[in-house]
Design goal:
The complex is a heterodimer of chains A (237) and B (375). With 237 residues, chain A is α/β, with parallel strands linked by helices. Chain A has helices at residues 2-10, 57-64, 87-96, 113-123, 128-141, 158-170, 188-203, and strands at residues 13-26, 29-42, 46-50, 72-77, 80-81, 98-101, 176-180, 207-211, 223-228, 231-235. In chain A, 34% of the residues lie in helices and 28% in strands. Chain A starts with a helix and ends with a strand. Chain B has 2 domains: 2-48 and 235-373, no CATH class; 62-223, no CATH class. The model of chain B has no long low-confidence stretch (mean pLDDT 89). The chains are: A alpha/beta (237), B alpha+beta (375). At the A-B interface, helix 3 and helix 4 of A face helix 1, helix 9 and helix 12 of B. The complex binds adenosine-5'-triphosphate and magnesium ion. Residues 57-58, 180 of chain A line the site of magnesium ion.
Chain lengths: 237, 375
């Protein structure tokens, strides 16, 4: 507690949610996917978001990742309010400041491992040779042997695919990495490898937010929040 | 980059892409082949009129009661500035007999030298003295050869030459006619008048001016003559066949519309199938524009491949329709025919792009999160 308290004083807030509310209307019924969620994440944090199924974890992550906008409240990324931005500007934030890692890996099936990692850079119109160079470096960062570079996702194991996916999230050197159940489709051992990889990235300065069901995984993080019915229930820090 | 992605996406469903391309190929072939056919018909018709563009035909003004022209008009026309050659043509019709057969034909009285300027022989020589020349079709129908004798209005004429078949002409219908000298004509019909006077100018450009001069000169006091410039007739022929080409291409365009719809269909299926992928692309930072470009590019690639293959095969298609309908393919490589191949290819590519526009727009409007959540 002491140590974390210190961090909060010293840390620079990279992400701030203020009374964020998301409502889904199902017929007459209103479902509060998020109910006045307030949350601060500092640069360098490794945050675990836990909670039962349907509690709003993914919704929260999508808000932070600028894939979804709140019905009420505001989301600040590096102290910029993103709540009222246009699609184009949100896209740019996703491209430059956020890295997504999904449960299903979601690699582009027609592109090789290396090309999948190059993709976000190419979208940013970075010249091809530069992309290839960076992508090769990233491959070694995520511990994927060079010989897999030219493999299609379908020719890789689940663990390898998730490594490529993490590599892709790193492509444009974002400050925040969001992972929605990144180990959900992996066996325990492979999942551990992925968590260690994320931990390593965290130690190099990336802010990481992981959604998970697995309480054991909170050991990797310095901060854990629990969501129930769209509300932050406790701050198990 | 996008190109690589687009290409690979297309090869994901190779068979489907090939079908869409085949549609474009057929459309392009249809458009260019029918365009070429129209153009070839036009070329063959204008060719058969030869170089009559510099001709003017002067008829008596039938509406004002004149039925023939005389030496007086002939001399006036000959002296008109810009006139190069003046050919008086006498014309009537009679029964001709040869052996046991007889038939009714047009009889022309034209000078042999003038004949040379108008018509070509397939054998023999032009008429002189009591010898005559007959049209190619007439000779064929009755198996007449030069050396044979025909009987016309009680006089005998020996055939000295047979004309090449002419096809349709505006001045003289030579194919079923018999040609004798003006002298024979006047003694036979006791008449020296002309049914028409054919005038040739130095060039096509002068036709209008000369025509006006002749009219001004001869119709000064009364409407004596009617004057027709061939340039006008050729122009309207040109116009007619231009329209024919467009009409034929329009028929071809229908098959291209079908191809466009098939591309639309293929691309729509593709956007639905790849909804999740679009969501992923959006999540990692692709803009709406990027998605739009990617899908349009895919459709364009289909259009370009189909267009180019179709363009090459159009030579075959054009050859085929020309052989079948015109019985010869020599007009296929005329520059004005080749243009239709380019038009066909262009239409093919444009069809691809158009077919991709709506699906691409739809894909680009998908909400990132909704797309991402789609399974
Ligand atoms: N598009 C939607 N339309 C209606 N309701 C939705 C929609 N998306 C989410 N919800 C609802 O919002 C609530 C939160 O959903 P969310 O996906 O955030 O849960 P979660 O915590 O990620 O669950 P899980 O652990 O199963 O992934 C759920 O009750 C869900 O039914
Ligand atoms: Mg979830």
């Amino acid at each position: 507690m002491e140590e974390i308290g210190m961090r909060q004083v010293a840390g620079e807030v990279t992400l701030r949610l203020e009374d964020v509310t998301k409502i889904y209307e199902m017929g007459d019924e209103k479902i509060y996917a998020l109910d006045r969620v307030t949350l601060n994440v500092e640069k360098g944090d490794f945050l675990t978001v836990m909670g039962p199924s349907g509690s709003g974890k993914s919704t929260l992550l999508n808000m932070i990742g600028c894939l979804d906008l709140p019905d009420e409240g505001s989301v600040y990324i590096d102290e910029d309010d993103v709540t009222n931005l246009e699609d184009n500007e949100l896209t740019k934030i996703r491209r430059d400041k956020i890295g997504f890692v999904f449960q299903q890996f979601n690699l582009i099936p027609t592109l090789t491992a290396l090309e999948n990692i190059e993709l976000p850079m190419l979208i940013k119109r970075i010249p091809q040779d530069q992309c290839t160079k960076s992508a090769k470096n990233i491959l070694s960062t995520v511990n994927l042997p060079e010989k897999f570079a030219s493999h299609l996702p379908s020719e890789l194991s689940s663990g390898q695919q998730q490594r490529v996916a993490i590599g892709r999230s790193l492509a444009n050197d974002p400050s925040i990495i969001l992972a929605d159940e990144p180990t959900g489709n992996l066996d325990t051992k492979t999942g551990e490898g992925i968590m260690k990889l994320l931990k390593g990235l965290n130690e190099e300065g990336k802010t990481i937010i992981v959604v998970t069901h697995d309480p054991r995984l909170s050991s990797y993080s310095n901060k854990t929040v629990r969501i129930v019915d769209g509300r932050i229930e406790e701050d198990v820090s | 980059m996008f190109l690589k992605l687009a290409r690979r996406n297309l090869s994901r469903h190779r068979f489907r892409s090939i079908l869409a391309i085949v549609g474009i190929i057929i459309g392009v072939i249809a458009i260019s082949s029918l365009g070429i056919l129209g153009n070839s018909i036009k070329l063959s018709v204008t060719d058969s009129f030869g170089d009559i563009g510099n001709e003017i035909i002067v008829y008596p003004d039938y509406e004002s009661g004149w039925s023939n022209l005389t030496k007086k008009e002939f001399n006036a026309i000959r002296k008109t500035t810009g006139v190069d050659v003046t050919i008086p043509v006498s014309q009537s019709s009679s029964q001709i007999q040869f052996g046991k057969d007889s038939t009714f034909t047009t009889v022309y009285g034209v000078d042999a030298i003038d004949m040379k300027a108008l018509l070509e022989l397939s054998s023999g020589q032009f008429q002189s003295g009591s010898r005559c020349v007959i049209g190619g079709v007439l000779a064929d129908s009755f198996d007449l050869k030069h050396g044979d004798t025909v009987n016309l209005e009680g006089s005998s004429f020996k055939i000295s030459g047979i004309l090449k078949k002419q096809g349709m002409r505006f001045d003289i219908s030579a194919d079923r006619a018999i040609f004798i000298t003006p002298k024979s004509y006047s003694s036979l019909y006791e008449n020296e008048d002309y049914a028409m006077i054919i005038v040739k100018t130095q060039g096509v450009e002068e036709v209008e001016a000369v025509k006006e001069r002749i009219e001004a000169n001869l119709n000064k006091r009364k409407d004596r003559v009617m004057v027709f410039g061939m340039d006008m007739i050729l122009e309207s022929l040109d116009e007619f066949f231009g329209m024919l080409s467009k009409f034929l291409m329009g028929i071809g365009a229908i098959s291209l519309i079908v191809a466009g719809v098939s591309i639309l269909n293929v691309m729509l299926i593709s956007t639905v199938e790849r909804t999740k992928e679009i969501g992923v692309m959006r999540a990692i930072g692709s803009s709406r524009r990027d998605i739009l470009i990617l899908f349009i590019l895919e459709a364009t690639i289909l259009g370009v491949i189909g267009g180019l293959i179709g363009g090459v095969l159009s030579f075959g298609g054009g050859y085929l329709v020309n052989i079948i309908i015109l019985k010869k393919a020599s007009y296929l490589f005329a520059p004005s025919s080749i243009v239709y191949i380019f038009i066909g290819v262009l239409f093919g590519v444009v069809t691809g792009v158009l077919g991709g526009l709506y699906p691409a727009w739809k894909a680009s409007r998908m909400l990132p999160l909704t797309a991402l959540k789609t399974e």
